[in-house]
Structure formats: structure tokens, C-alpha cells
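Hello, quick one for you while I still have it in my head. A protein chain has come my way and I'm curious about its shape. Can you walk me through what the C-alpha cells say about the fold? No rush at all, and the record is pasted right below.
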Amino acid sequence: MSTKEQRRQKKLVKKKTKEVAKRKQQARQKAVMQSLAGQMRVAGGGTLDRCFLSEDLFADNNRIGSVLISRFMPDGRVACARILVDAFCLGVKNVDGFVTFPANLSEFIERVEQAETLRRCQPAMAKKFVEEAIAYAAKFGIEPHADYRKVESIWSGIDASECDETFQFGDEKGKPRYISGPFDSSVFQQRILDKLRTHAGEGNYEFVMMVGDHHAFSTAEEMSWMEDPELDADIDEDVIDGRVIESRP
């Protein structure tokens, strides 16, 4: 084989190697975009789109509502994480993460606002609120919803310490108050009550069972996350203003 032909063969091998590496990189990128966690990692490097907190999170008799943040993807779409926060007890109770077009996200936010009032806020404030809610729940052995770990990278580059506001968790005395949603199964209810009994101690928490669809929470597809309710009829209870209150002496 001539020297010229050898050089040509080397160039062909080098070109083929580059093409193979490029295809592998494209395959990896495609695989990343097929998972929620991968989508949110990509979004974490994007420009902020919108950020909201629900006013319900600061209501004395509710404290359950949405935190919503969206960021632009490289292709012009937006990634959104809607996080259901229970500031009374559970921290992050549920999560909805998805990628869509900006106009579709605007429609989704309009639907959310039919159920709760959203107010715009700085992302540092939203991140600090969510992280402190998680830390509060952790005191009682309660972990955030499993999907939160899939979406939390959407906060990348946002510094919660830039927010100097303080937030109240639990009741007015800082005690946890578990408000059972209409779709919380009896198994879930008992698991939370066992954790509160273990970590807070008797007399240091409240259990409130909501009657009716007071805290229904839908995903982007307007589907419920939770199981059908299985109410435990064996507890001692009183019904006050649409709530079933169980005292824990």
C-alpha cells in the first residue's frame, strides 16, 4: 500500500470514529430527554421563564398550595415543575414536572389559577420556601414526594440565601398539623400519624381530616396523583366547618 493510500485510510478511520462518537453523543442526549430527571437537568441551565407561589401557603387555616417554576429549554420549549407544598406538616406532598410550549404552559397556569391564587415571586424565595418546608417535615421523619428528586435540578444556579424573608411552618406554635386530603389513603394517613407520634410525641401534633374535595390537585393532564380515599371509621372524631378533627391528647 502506498504512503498516499495509507494517509487516505487513516483519514477515513478518523472520520468514521468522529461520526460514531457523534451518534453516541446524540443517543445519550436523546436518552436524557426521555426522562423527567434528564429534562429538568437540561432546564436547570436555561433562562428563567416564570415563578409563582400560591397565596394559600400563607393562609392561617390552609397552608397547602403550589410552588411553580419554569425555565426555557434549548429548543424554545419550557420545562415546568409544579410542587404541592404542605406547610403545616408534609413538606413536598406531590410534584408534577413536564415540558411543553410556552402557550400551553400559559393555559395550564390559567387552569391552576381557577383553584388557587398564584403570585409571582423571585425564584430564590420559591426555592427557599420549598427547601425549608422539606427541612421542617424531615424533623418528623417525613420525606418529600419521591418525584421531587427528579425535578429539583430545575433550581440549579438559584441561590436561596438571596431571599431574606422568614417563613412559618406548622401551626402558630410551630407544631405540625396533618391535614388529610380527600385522596390520602388510610395506609398513608396511618404512616404519617405513626411518624408524628414517634418524632413529635403525643400532644404535640394535630390530625385534621378534610371532608370533600377541598385540596384536589391535578397534574398537567388534569389527573389526580393520589389513591381513592379509604376512610377509617374507628377513630373518635368531630366535624367542624367541613373538617373532621381528631384530638391527640
Notes: Residues 38-246 form one domain. Strands lie at 48-54, 64-72, 78-86, 91-100, 118-120, 177-180, 206-210, 238-240, 243-246. The chain has a mean pLDDT of 81.
